[in-house]
Amino acid sequence: MSCSACRRRRWRRRDSNCNGQWPVVSGSKLDRRDLSQGERVLSRKRKRVTLRDVARQAGVSPTAVSFAYNAPHQLSQATREHILDTAEQLGYQPHPVARTLATGRTNAIGLLVPTSLNWMLHDPLFTHFLGEIGAACDREENRIILASMYETLPRDLRPGGEPVAPFTWLSSIAADGFLMVGIDRSHPLTEAVQRSQRPIVLLDSASDLQAPTFNIDDHGGAYAVAQHLLAKGHREFAIATMAPRLDGVVIPSFGRRVKGFSQAVEEAGLPPSAVQIVHARGVRSAGHQSFQNIWTLRRRPTAVFCVSDVRALGILSGARREGLSVPDDLAVVGFGDLPDARESSPPLTSVHRDMDSQPQLAIRTLFQLINEQISEADIASPHISDTRLVVRESS
Amino acid sequence: MSCSACRRRRWRRRDSNCNGQWPVVSGSKLDRRDLSQGERVLSRKRKRVTLRDVARQAGVSPTAVSFAYNAPHQLSQATREHILDTAEQLGYQPHPVARTLATGRTNAIGLLVPTSLNWMLHDPLFTHFLGEIGAACDREENRIILASMYETLPRDLRPGGEPVAPFTWLSSIAADGFLMVGIDRSHPLTEAVQRSQRPIVLLDSASDLQAPTFNIDDHGGAYAVAQHLLAKGHREFAIATMAPRLDGVVIPSFGRRVKGFSQAVEEAGLPPSAVQIVHARGVRSAGHQSFQNIWTLRRRPTAVFCVSDVRALGILSGARREGLSVPDDLAVVGFGDLPDARESSPPLTSVHRDMDSQPQLAIRTLFQLINEQISEADIASPHISDTRLVVRESS
DNA sequence: CGCGGCGAATTAAACAGTTTAGTCAACGCG
DNA sequence: CGCGTTGACTAAACTGTTTAATTCGCCGCG
User: Fold this and answer.
1) Domain of A162: which CATH number?
2) CA-to-C1' distance for A84 and D22, Å?
3) Inter-chain contacts counted by CB atoms under 8 A, chains A and B
4) Which domain holds residue A182?
């Protein structure tokens, strides 16, 4: 039982005992019948029907079979039909991986997020993006590979090895191109962005990276918020922004919003201390806590600007729970203008951004780059979409 | 002295550095400059550094290079380090697709949804699942391939082009296993599920499919809701369930909830007409419309049971907008007990389900199946998690 | 009659890795 | 001295496709 081969195989990834493991040599598969323990369902590892099997059965060359699928006009009608019939009978299915290896096309795009997936997926804006991207991928018969850098980065690749280098990580993903959301200059992955051979498009990211970038006018939007609040007479502000729970991950658009707001306040002649930064989680149900953080500040603000609508909506419901009136006791402004912002009570003042066209443009550009219909040089980058303030009753 | 080992040790001389190489990576951006415009960008197709290149450069066999990565202890420490150094200098990155072809492992799982991605991603429960699955995949160094099975629906049930044969579609996805959410018996893909060679696990799906299934007690939960409402004296009900916008796609858990509720009402001796079915979109901001649909019924109900919390929360805000009192004018009950349910006003009565452990169990099982640590026969299926009613102020 | 071109199918070389089955020298042991 | 083992490494065979180059009749044309 303890054949030397097995001992040598100790190192295999997910180690298991040698039975059932390598069905490779078709003859020896049955000989293993006597390995009693852990007899696996054999049916699963039935040998796959390959293109070559079809060719043999149909009495043609493998190339002909390939042509039958990919270049029908190279074959006579009769031959083609015969081949397809044979394939059908044998239950042949082309092997996607082998095809990818030969063609260089994976028919998948990588959607990369700097934080944990868990975190990103709680942001309605991101899931909305994901939906748009998904729709585009459906149309192009592509798939989305969702990957988070967050947990992977500090891990060890092998026992005794170093942490995974971003570039290594990136090139281990079998995608034709990448879409990155919310990536900052300080993120280790930016180095990989520059070096990558495959097209990369950035969304809501830093504006000075060497890749086509699609941003919105965060600064201007936030600036307008401050002007609006100043005009309403407010002089003490809070900004609710990302909780520093995810060390090292910075969402650049949030930073720009904070800057835009602060700048307007400063230009109005108020001291920097008039703006206090507070951390709020980007989950609606954490709103009460976020509200408390604001309400218990020593210099209590009269208005709070949230870098995202979820935070604002959370704070809104936190305030309601405490029986406070918005906007009389506290004005609340969000950013993003989610559909829910219109439905809240009171309806939320927010910075409107086009949630559809921007991700659509980004994904379309990515596909064009992948298909080499355009080159990166053709793209004016960063592309910045307009934002505009929508004043509602919360301010 | 002239032993081959020594001759091979040539490389010990570190000063013969082969730097300046980087044949692939850098520079490509600059080289493109001199191509006349309009010329297709060829530079991207610069030849990739392969394992064989590394082997040649390091003076070892390709096997040795492979071993350096995958079977370190087959090599002497010195050789291994030399190989890795060489690889680093050349900028070598293993080709994930080639590796997959040879090993049969893709290190990815497919997450398949019956509807369009757009639709599914608006459901907070699903995005929560996605987060959990993402976390598990991060741990296993796997990736998620997100794919919508919408294309496989027959033409008459959906806008768009020719349907793809389900089995063909499934086998075109390069994943080691699949997790399907919300799949019903009637879905064309169920046939493919049975035929698949790769492990499949189902979540919140039909209970009579030939694959490990992880469901919750939808029937019992809904039954308890009806009992609760009956005890409160209600006699006229509405059930708000999925809008039939996505024709052909049936979410089985919703069906079970409708059945469970109806059964309890029936057992209480009321006529079937005491329960009216209303369609409501699973988006919060569509709540007002959904509310109207209920409020304008000829036989106006005094209580509404929603098959999901998002629907209930939407209706809640719709009712508030009309100035109605919940629960006095209308009692509202949800299903799922999202975190937001606790924060709504009034707090929402809902059927609690464990949102974490069920998807975690499913994904863990899937990985065990992929790694052949267990077989399908070992799994008691369907696995059904408990639900329990949480009464709050909305009823 | 020779020649070019075409349609239909084939051969062989990629694609970029992994794994099997060795080789070869050194070592241990009775 | 012969035999079995081990450690370090390699040659060759795989994984399942695509595709460039080629063959081989056959037809029309000058």
Assistant:
1) 3.40.50.2300
2) 25
3) 202
4) 108-216+357-385
Residue A64 covered by a domain: yes
In which residue are the tokens 């006003």 written? B345
Same domain assignment for residues A134 and A247:
no
Looking at the fold, whether B236 and B337 belong to one and the same domain comes out as yes
pLDDT digits (tens, 9 = 90+) for B240-271: 999 776 667 889 999 999 999 999 999 999 99
Report the C-alpha dihedral over residues B359, B365, B367, B368, rounded to 10 degrees. Answer: 160
B70 and B124 part of one domain: no
Distance of residue A134 Cα from the nearest chain B Cα, in angstroms: 6
Residues of chain A contacting B167 with CB distance shorter than 8 Å: 93
Length of chain B: 395
Q: Best mutation site among A197, A292, A322, A338 for testing chain B: the one with the most B CBs within 10 Å?
A: A197
**SS3 of chain B: helix, strand, coil, percent, to 5:** 45, 15, 40
The DSSP bridge partners found for residue B202 are B180, B213
Rounded-to-integer distance, Cα B218 and Cα B33, Å: 62
Same domain, A253 and A367: no
B292 to chain A, any CB pair closer than 8 A? The answer is no
One domain, residues A332 and A369: no
pLDDT at A34 over 80: no
User: For all residues of chain A together, what is the average pLDDT?
Assistant: 83
Do A247 and A326 lie in one domain? The reply is yes
- For residue B171, the one-letter residue type is S
Quick one: pLDDT at residue A114? Answer: 85
- Comparing A81-95, B150-164, B212-226, which segment has the lowest mean pLDDT? B150-164
User: Are residues A200 and A131 both part of a single domain?
Assistant: yes
β-sheet with B387-390: strand ranges across: B275-280, B237-242, B303-306, B331-336, B349-353, B387-390
Q: Which residues of A touch B194 (CB under 8 A)?
A: none
Q: Do A148 and B138 touch (CB under 8 A)?
A: yes
Q: Is the C-beta atom of A4 closer than 7 angstroms to strand D?
A: yes
CA distance A39 to chain B (A): 9
Residues A316/A288, Cβ–Cβ less than 8 Å:
no
Least-confidence region, from A182-196, B88-102, B266-280 = A182-196
Neighbours of A68 (CB within 10 A): 24
Residues in Cβ contact with A65 at an 8 Å cutoff, skipping those fewer than 6 apart: A51, A54, A55, A58, A83, A87
Q: Which of B246 and B392 is assigned the larger pLDDT?
A: B392
B157 and B29 share one domain? no
**Beta strand A349-353 with A387-390: parallel, antiparallel or unpaired?**
antiparallel
Would B391 be classed as within a structural domain?
Answer: no
Is residue A122 within 8 angstroms of chain B, CB to CB? yes
State the pTM of this model.
0.84
